TrEMBL record:
Its cofactor is Mg(2+). SUPFAM superfamilies: Glutathione synthetase ATP-binding domain-like, Phosphoenolpyruvate/pyruvate domain, Phosphohistidine domain. It is an enzyme of class 2 (transferase). Its EC number is 2.7.9.1. Residues 577-930 form the PEP-utilising enzyme C-terminal domain. Mg(2+) binds at E805, D829. It comes from Candidatus Thermofonsia Clade 3 bacterium. InterPro entries: ATP_grasp_subdomain_1 (IPR013815), PEP-util_enz_mobile_dom (IPR008279), PEP_util_AS (IPR018274), PEP_util_C (IPR000121), PEP_util_CS (IPR023151), Phosphohistidine_dom_sf (IPR036637), PPDK_AMP/ATP-bd (IPR002192), Pyruvate_phosphate_dikinase (IPR010121). The keyword Kinase applies. Belongs to the PEP-utilizing enzyme family. The active site is at H485 (tele-phosphohistidine intermediate), C892 (proton donor). This is Pyruvate, phosphate dikinase. It catalyses: pyruvate + phosphate + ATP = phosphoenolpyruvate + AMP + diphosphate + H(+). Substrate binds at R607, R663, E805, G826, T827, N828, D829.
Length: 937
């Protein structure tokens, strides 16, 4: 037999269990939920937010949350709200009536009717779920009472017709059109444009029509009983939690089941109840500059939607200080409180109802990159957050954005003012660019190669256009969004792009574009801002943001460096290692100086061959290459030496006290000669001419020279030069060349040391594949170094090391480290050789498709491939350090400036990453983030 007493007990327990929580019921909530996740679980996201704001002492409109548990009970009970829970709702309504001094359902003379909103809110927000019903509590009687107390018939009737619409569609499931159609018809018939043109009489008529719609569609009258309205709304919210949309969403998110929702019942607040009422929005700090100055707008005697409808112009928030001084003071106090509570800049919505201020919403405000940095730094200085938290909050992309060239703000304003805005579209790839319009990819490529600034304009782009896209400064399309081909390619290559600017009428046969009253032809200048999605006629002036002037960024990165310097990590070899340093790739003293100014702690790569291309030097280099005997070659090398020496001296001066890695010549020599095709064309031209007439003296000399060059190029021709005679192989075949470079390095080092600088040269041998290559080359070079120091009577600290760019070098790193004192991972080549891709060919043909279609997660030349290339790096670090524990290890491929790759380098135990000077600030932040364990996306 059943134990009746036990059943009763359980039932009593159930009856007593708290399911409804007033926003100010801190005690009740704390009995059931202690931690923030538990509170969110119980009250849902929105309910938890309202509870938290109330707890923080903010004036939130009174209300309560029906917990998510009731949702579960509702489903279990076959879509019924259990009696004990509903009793608690009724009790909570009584408290809210007391808190507000208003009466739900009205009917008490001199007391205002209470209206509420009913809102859903699960633990996680679920788009597509039932959202909100406003103005619950209005009926034929309370609408009149509202008019009596507010004196605003229009507002009362408008609120009533909104309730009918929302209740009808969200609660009763009547299609929106059933309400929209009669309203649109009425507006059309009466010649109105805006909803706000509707008069009181019109609105009354609409209320009657909407009631009839409800009756026709459901066979029932709209409930005049306000508690029935409330219950129906709550039930609709609960039903929606397991409805079709919620199930689909849960499935999409990969959740096991749908989430139960809470129901929030919130007192309606009206900002249109007289001149002591208002509504507004504000940011607690300026979201575009980050300045600690509130930025907002408000409207007296208005509803939020008046602002949206644009029928009245809001006033700046400062005016509130004069107009409503007491309330303004209170508002400022609350904003400060909010910042203290959330420790971040807030974006708030507020309403003042007859002098009483209510906060309707607060959330962390969206902000520009500049503001993000300023706010983080200021808040740390104000001791609101720690320096570490400030560093955490700023994203590497914010730093990136700040250092990109941008259009001058005033020039943009002027252009807009003068009607020079050509079109707006999707902000597909950030950055500013100006250039001449090219209507096809071939022309863009040609002009690009001629050194012209080009903006490629197309209706949309296709894979065949990539050659022109990469040659362009910017891309502008009329069709396609953020995931269109143009957008994806542009982002891949860091080219600014505006896509889907559909106002552009592009006529490809006439090669014109028409938009916003402008007709532009091929070759006309335009400027695009890919971060904003705007295109302008003409060339807007650009500003290169100066790093030093960005004092907040400088401060933030100083803190980032402190974090990296303090940090100790356990590296791959199990040993503790200091945080990651950031060095830079720089070939010239001015780049090195910039790198140093940007905070680089060394030069990780100086590509010496770049200097060979300069006009004065190229002929000497070519002579050196073409020399058919040792003396002639040595003469050319002797001529090159002073150039190299002065290049290196400049670098050492700029980087005094810091290491400078100088790489010996790397590329195949044919790169210093004209192209084979060009030479064949020239020689053929001379030979054809010669067939008919004699060549002049100069012509003949040039012909002979071209012929010699062609023979040399033919002799040097390689099937695959990237895997041919280059790097250390070249050093072995032409030993005098690298010996000259090492001599130049040490002569320069000794000279600048005599001047009082502290040079720290590190000689890097490229493309080693076998330790024997180093064994052959390195001792000879060290001899040169020592000889120079002896000649000069000066000693400098130096190192000899190698690049790890070939998989075999990584695999045999233990052997390589017997010779090399440092490793630098050349991940451009290492990626090419690990994947077996030739980068240029891959990016031009299949790589993009691979990324687009998810065959590869990323372009491996931009973001380091952890699983493949990364494995080789980790292995090489471990093996290298096993042989030589003091081995210095870094990376100098382009990945050194990519935040995700920086995070990998940190994990792999590298000492530094080296990247382009412009990316040094980003890498410094990324290195600190790695030290803080923040996953970089
Ligand atoms: C590399 O291969 O990563 C590298 C830095 O060398 P380069 O790009 O000059 O071949
Ligand atoms: Mg390389």
């Amino acid at each position: 037999m059943r134990q009746p007493s036990a059943g009763n007990k359980a039932r009593n327990g159930l009856a007593k269990k708290q399911r409804v929580f007033l926003f100010n019921d801190e005690k009740g909530v704390s009995k059931v939920a202690k931690t923030w996740p538990e509170i969110r679980e119980l009250l849902g996201g929105k309910g938890a937010g309202l509870f938290d704001m109330t707890r923080a002492g903010l004036p939130v409109p009174p209300g309560f949350t029906i917990s998510t548990e009731v949702c579960n009970e509702f489903v279990k009970a076959g879509n019924k709200i259990p009696r004990p829970a509903w009793d608690q709702v009724l009790a909570a309504m009584k408290v809210v009536e007391k808190q507000t001094g208003k009466k739900f359902g009205g009917g008490v003379k001199g007391v205002r009717p209470l209206l509420v909103s009913v809102r859903s809110g699960a633990r996680e927000s679920m788009p597509g779920m039932m959202e909100t019903v406003l103005n619950v509590g209005l009926n034929d009687q309370t609408v009149e009472e509202m008019i009596a107390v507010t004196g605003n018939a229009r507002f009362a009737w408008d609120s009533y017709r909104r309730l009918l619409m929302m209740f009808g569609s969200t609660v009763l499931g009547i299609p929106d059109e059933k309400f929209d159609e009669p309203m649109e018809r009425m507006k059309h018939e009466r010649g109105y444009k805006l909803d706000t043109d509707l008069t009181v009489e019109d609105l009354k008529e609409l209320v009657a029509i909407f009631k009839q719609v409800i009756k026709d569609e459901t066979g029932r009258e709209f409930p005049q009983d306000v508690y029935e309205q409330l219950k129906e709304c709550a039930m609709a919210v609960f039903r929606s939690a397991t409805g079709h949309k919620a199930r689909t969403y849960a499935k999409q998110m990969g959740w096991k089941s749908t989430l139960p929702t809470a129901v929030n019942v919130v007192t309606m607040i009206f900002g249109n109840m007289g001149d002591d009422s208002a509504t507004g929005v504000a940011f607690t700090r300026d979201p575009s500059t980050g300045e600690k100055k509130m930025l907002g707008e408000y409207l007296v005697n208005a509803q939020g939607e008046d602002v949206v409808a644009g029928i009245r112009t809001p006033k700046p928030i400062e005016e509130m200080a004069k107009e409503m001084p007491k309330t303004y003071k209170e508002f400022v106090r609350i904003c400060n409180l909010l910042e203290k509570h959330y420790k971040d800049m807030q974006d708030v919505e507020f309403t003042i109802e007859q002098g009483k201020l209510y906060m309707l919403q607060t959330r962390n405000g969206k902000r520009t990159a500049k503001a993000a940095i300023k706010i983080a730094v200021d808040m740390a200085k104000e001791k609101l957050i720690t320096k570490e938290e400030a560093v955490r909050r700023v994203k590497p992309a914010d730093v990136d954005f700040l250092l990109h060239p941008q259009f001058d703000e005033q020039a943009v304003k002027d252009a807009k003012h003068d009607g020079r805005l050509l079109a707006t579209g999707v902000n597909a790839s950030p950055g500013a660019a100006s250039g001449m319009l090219a209507f096809d990819a071939d022309l863009a490529e040609r002009w690009g190669n001629e050194g012209k600034a080009v903006i490629l304009i197309r209706p949309e782009t296709k894979p065949d256009d990539v050659h022109g896209m990469v040659a362009a400064k910017g891309i502008l399309t009329a069709r396609g969004g953020a995931t269109s081909h143009a957008a994806v390619v542009a982002r891949q290559f860091g080219i600014p792009a505006v896509c889907g600017a559909d106002a552009l009428q592009i006529n490809l046969s006439e090669r014109t574009v028409t938009s916003n009253g402008h007709v532009l032809r091929e070759g006309d200048w335009v400027s695009i801002d890919g971060g904003k999605g705007e295109a302008y006629v003409g060339q807007l002036p650009m500003v290169h943001p100066s790093f030093e002037e960005q004092t907040d960024l400088v401060t933030l990165l100083k803190w980032a460096d402190e974090i990296s310097a303090k940090n100790t990590r356990k590296a791959e070899d199990g040993k503790p290692r200091r945080g990651l340093q950031v060095w830079a790739n720089a070939d010239y003293p001015k780049d090195a100086q910039r790198a140093r100014d940007y905070g680089a702690k060394g030069i990780g790569l100086c590509r010496t061959e770049h200097m060979f291309f300069e006009a004065e030097r190229l002929p000497i280099v070519q002579r050196m290459i073409l020399a058919d005997n040792n003396e002639a070659r040595q003469r050319a090398l002797d001529e090159l030496l002073p150039f190299q020496r002065s290049d290196f001296a400049g670098l050492f001066r700029a980087m005094t006290g810091l290491p400078v890695i100088i790489r010996l010549i790397d590329p195949p020599l044919h790169e210093f000669l004209p192209s084979q095709e060009e030479l064949i064309r020239e020689v053929t031209r001379y030979e054809t001419k010669r067939h008919y007439e004699a060549l002049g003296e100069e012509e003949y000399a040039d012909y002979q020279n071209k012929l010699a060059l062609l023979n040399a190029v033919n002799a040097m021709h390689e099937q695959n030069p990237m895997m041919g005679l280059r790097g250390i192989r070249l050093g072995i075949m032409i030993p005098g060349l690298i010996a000259m470079q090492v001599r130049a390095i040490f002569e320069a080092a000794c000279d600048v040391k005599k001047e009082g600088y502290e040079p720290m040269p590190e000689v890097m041998i490229p493309l080693t594949g076998h330790v024997n290559e180093l064994k052959r080359v390195q001792p000879e070079l060290e001899k040169v170094a020592k000889a120079v120091m002896e000649e000069k009577g000066v000693k400098v600290k130096y190192k000899f090391g190698t690049m790890i760019e070939i998989p075999r070098a990584a695999l045999t790193a233990d052997e390589i480290a017997t010779m090399a004192e440092f490793f630098s991972f050349g991940t451009n080549d290492l990626t090419q050789m690990t994947y077996g891709y030739s980068r240029d060919d891959a990016e031009r043909s299949f790589l993009l498709k691979y990324v687009e279609e998810g065959i590869l997660p990323d372009n491996p030349f931009q973001t380091l491939d952890r699983d493949g290339v990364g494995q080789l790096i980790k292995m090489a670090v471990q093996k290298g350090r096993a042989t030589r524990p003091t081995l210095e290890v870094g990376i100098c491929g382009e990945h050194g400036g990519d935040p995700r790759s920086v995070a990998f380098c940190y994990e792999a135990g590298l000492n530094y990453v080296s990247c382009s000077p412009f990316r040094v600030p980003i890498a410094r932040l990324a290195a600190a983030h790695a030290a803080l364990g923040i996953a970089t996306k």
